[in-house]
From TrEMBL:
Entry EC number(s): 3.6.5.n1
Membrane topology according to the record: Peripheral membrane protein
Catalytic function, reaction form: GTP + H2O = GDP + phosphate + H(+)
Any one GO BP annotation for this protein: positive regulation of translation
Protein's name in the database: Elongation factor 4
Species lineage: Bacteria, Pseudomonadati, Bacteroidota, Flavobacteriia, Flavobacteriales
Length: 632
């Protein structure tokens, strides 16, 4: 293993990302014959390199789906996944394939490719022994390809490189094969050319999985030890838990125990995951399956937990599970405050299906009761909001996203106050320093766009740390950047300046001191806490001005003037005014003395003044997301 991947380990600046989910599966010499017939593998790649299409062809070739069941992106069962053409959830499915006269059981876990869903990838990798590394023959190796490869190597997986889309006119198979060989240190013959669209190379891939991926190791005579790698909520049957048996076996009706929560349940139904669930009486070590215990409370099942027998529990829980660390924070509030409990229930069920979502209750003066939510990135946040609306019929308001800061006061310069919300920042006069999270950003782009990409990163307060020419045409740039600068429009702007050719990946590298201030937005002299933002002092004036201009466009006019102000503490740094809708009160005056008109205008002026004192300004949802589109 070490010699094969030595080239990759020696390379520097490849955006190494430590796995969020690293599992140390114990190795055993005992390996029964039936376990030799099992192969557990996943598909990893950059977004849009053909993972889901390849999974479709594997299912077709092994006869796992009938003609009636066939459809594109078969494993992407969410409408949202189909519409956007991306995988959001990892999906497990079992196939059977005859090779050399023997029938093998192949457990495939399809994984997402976007950087925001790397947590899903890390969980899938933990349940496998091998991985298909899919690389687009037209786009070559991208940033997320390298990141996911490191996750697989950390878990000691056997890597099978697949060169996909060789049928495209723009494909460059020889050059991309050389890139893969250089990255992995493997032989060119080990790279399998394929086309998931036309079915070329699918048989070679299946044969390679059986030949190269090791059979799972475990001892069926040991006490039950199973890893929970996913779970979903079924409104009729409760929580459905997906697991991989490491040691021992699980039987229908058995009394089982979840180690993390310490609670006991009965295995009402167990089975394997084909296109539909297939109930079984027993699942042995090395295999993947589902479990239904009738659990109704979403919080009782934790992804990464260990399932064991309640009467003879294992002494060693599967190690390596870490709670996910959110990168972006935003408030989610129900439009109607009476729906707060319903929103809580919806969030808990969604969290069961997406373990990387974290939330805590909070309240806002402007929006009432809601939740402070942590996400892995902006796409993840967008998907959660969309799923709440589609799957649970919850119309929500999302506040301006921000990251988590550390504030130190002059009284206590050693103890950090965690600031997830701009309103949590202490009074500026008592703040000693504020630290913000930094990331190591890895960008792979064409040589033509290096100048544009560097200008964008420097504008976002990035510091270049490395520049490597992977080939004469492809450059890898590494920057240290504040996370707060990339959570808004960075990814979209990067695609724009590179004409869609740049790929982006990042990994956290810790906290650094920055000169940060809180910009408050005042509407009609009332601060709106949901629109506050923590920004760097140098950018505060510009952002305050742009925020006021954007809000002026979005907030509807009222019967009175609405001043919109941006302030740092008590200092106003920008102002815009939404002019009042004016009713022509002098329209009924046909001539006559001017004093009559003046009297009516004075009366109207007093009414508007009184209205301004008691009037409420309705803020539309777009206004809360205005900060995301400041550069539009």
């Amino acid at each position: 293993m070490e010699s094969k991947y030595c080239n990759l380990i020696k390379k520097e600046g490849l955006g190494v990302k430590r796995p969020i989910f690293a599992v140390d599966l114990k190795r055993f010499t005992t390996c029964p014959f039936d376990m030799e017939m099992i192969r557990n593998f996943c598909i990893i790649a950059h977004i849009d390199h053909g993972k889901s299409t390849l999974a479709d062809r594997l299912l077709d070739f092994t006869g796992s789906v009938t003609e009636r069941e066939k459809q594109d992106q078969l494993l992407d069962n969410m409408d949202l996944e189909r519409e956007r053409g991306i995988t959001i959830k990892s999906h497990a499915i079992q196939m059977e394939y005859v090779y050399g006269g023997e029938t093998y059981v192949l457990n495939l876990i399809d994984t997402p490719g976007h950087v925001d869903f790397s947590y899903e990838v890390s969980r899938s990798i933990a349940a496998c022994e091998g991985a298909l590394l899919v690389v687009d023959a037209a786009q070559s190796i991208q940033a997320q390809t390298i990141s996911n490869l490191y996750l697989a190597l950390e878990n000691d997986l056997e890597i099978i490189p697949v060169l996909n889309k060789v049928d495209l006119p723009s494909a460059n198979p020889e050059e991309v094969t050389d890139d893969i060989v250089d990255l992995l240190g493997c032989d060119p013959e080990e790279v399998i050319p394929a086309s998931a669209k036309t079915g070329v190379g699918i048989e070679d891939i299946l044969n390679a999985i059986i030949e190269r991926v090791p059979a799972p190791e475990g001892d069926p005579d040991e006490p039950l030890q199973a890893l929970v790698f996913d779970s979903v909520y079924n409104p009729f049957r409760g929580v459905e838990t997906y697991f991989r048996v490491v040691n021992g076996e699980i039987k229908k009706g058995q009394k089982i125990k979840f180690v993390a929560t310490g609670k006991d349940y009965f295995a009402d139904e167990i089975g394997t995951l084909k296109l539909n669930q297939i109930p079984k009486n027993k699942i042995s070590s090395g295999d993947v399956g589902y479990l239904i215990t009738g659990i109704k409370d979403a919080r009782e099942v934790k992804v990464g937990d260990t399932i064991t027998d309640a009467n003879t529990p294992t002494q060693n829980a599967i190690e390596g599970f870490e709670d996910v660390k959110p990168m972006v924070f935003a408030g989610i509030y129900p439009v109607d405050t009476e729906d707060f409990e319903e929103l809580r229930s919806s969030m808990e069920k969604l969290q069961l299906n997406d373990a990387s979502l974290v939330f805590t209750p909070e309240s806002s003066a402007a929006l009432g009761f809601g939740f402070r939510c942590g996400f892995l990135g902006m796409l993840h946040m967008e998907i959660i909001q969309e799923r709440l609306e589609r799957e649970f019929n919850m119309t929500v308001i999302t506040t301006v996203p921000n990251v988590s800061y550390h504030a130190y006061t002059t009284k206590d310069r050693e103890t950090a106050l965690i600031v997830n919300n701009p309103s949590d920042l202490p009074d500026p006069s008592t703040v000693d320093r504020v630290e913000e999270p930094y990331i190591k950003a890895t960008i792979i782009t064409k040589a033509d766009f290096v100048g544009n990409v560097m200008s964008l990163c420097i504008e976002k307060r990035g510091q270049i740390t490395n520049q490597t020419y992977l080939t004469t045409e492809r450059v890898e740039l590494t920057f240290d950047m504040p996370l707060a600068e990339i959570v808004f429009d960075f990814y979209d702007r990067l695609k724009t300046v590179s004409k869609g050719y740049a790929s982006f990946d990042y990994a956290p590298i810790g906290m650094r001191t920055s000169k940060l201030v809180r910009v408050d937005i005042l509407l009609n002299s009332q601060p709106v806490d949901a629109l506050s933002a923590l920004v760097h002092f140098d950018n505060a004036q510009t952002i305050g001005k742009k925020m006021c201009e954007k809000l002026k466009e979005l907030i509807p006019r009222q019967q009175f003037d609405i001043p919109i102000q941006a302030a740092i503490g008590s200092k106003i740094i920008s102002r815009e005014t939404i002019k009042a809708l004016r009713k022509d009160v002098t329209a009924k005056c046909y001539g006559g003395d001017i004093s009559r008109k003046r009297k009516l205008l004075e009366k109207q002026k007093k009414g508007k003044k009184r209205m301004r004192q008691v009037g409420n300004v309705e803020i539309p949802q777009q206004a809360f997301m205005a900060v995301l589109k400041l550069n539009d």
